[in-house]
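Same chain as my last thread, 351 residues:
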Amino acid sequence: MLDSRGSYQPDNNRFNRRYNNADYSPHLSPGSSDELRRSISLGAQQREQSNLEPTEEEGKFCVCAVFKVISLKKALPLLKTRINRSFTLSQEQAAALLACAFFCLFPYRSRLSPVKEYENFPTPNFGKLYRAGPANKVEKLKCLLHYFNRVTKKMPNGVITFQRVSLYYSQYPKWNEMDTDLCDLNMTTGRKIEEIKNVLQVDFANKYIGGGVLGHGCVQEEIRFTICPEMIVSLLVCEAMEKNECIFLIGCEQYSKYKGYGDSFKYDGDFRDNTPRDSWGRRWCHVVAIDAIYFREPSEQYHMTLVERELLKAYTGFRPIGQGLEYEFGIATGNWGCGAFHGDRQLKGID
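reply #2:
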């Protein structure tokens, strides 16, 4: 959570605001019924092509969830840029919002010219996932349908938190004046980031959180959001990140196993997440989304202004709130901004 200086404390169970089941709803439009019919048709076609049979429980849950959300009176709080703010909701509320996204019930967010309030937000609707594309789109859909199958049989009773951290200019580090030693670095090739517990896990994010999770994307961020679908709710509330911002996703549960990466990604069955919960009922899973620069020309990344930008972004995500052992925590990361973004692994390692 945040202290008075806007810093992250990974084991702080307080949160700024809590919302009950009757207070907040997403922005749904009067045309939602048309979107619902179209989305049901698209979803049915995708299931038929993928040999994915719907269950009676899934149908009942999705319909009930949609009407439950539509009946609410107020809009979801938005985590807008340049504002330090957090938003906590129950896993049941998250499931209801994801059911609406499954039926594409946020049409103001999917148009070519979105309502001005949302023009710098990602699209939370599942519509692009139903369109023709590579086989990994079907595998992502299998993971998401498995999530709905799980929560219809037994709804989890915890809570999750989304938190935007925006660093003030006065908090920027003066790199040329620092003489701090580099921290210890442990290298491993046998474990995935999500498998390393009790540390801050890094999401190699797009500035629009979630990246291509609901489209063609299928690399680190998209895979993490697919196996932990509650993270997709962040697309609904989080505006694009600026260079001095990061987003924390706290307490999101993993529901699916997977194998492969990119084009070879495949759903690999059920996953039972036994991560302990904190006193508020959140899984002790803290993920920080930080977006690296895309270098069309790889040689550009060695310019000092861009090196300092990447340093600032990482500092924003990893910054502790004080001195001493009680404020120290491990960070699980990897080839952040490398691969498709053309980052240099050695340079990023120094960063």
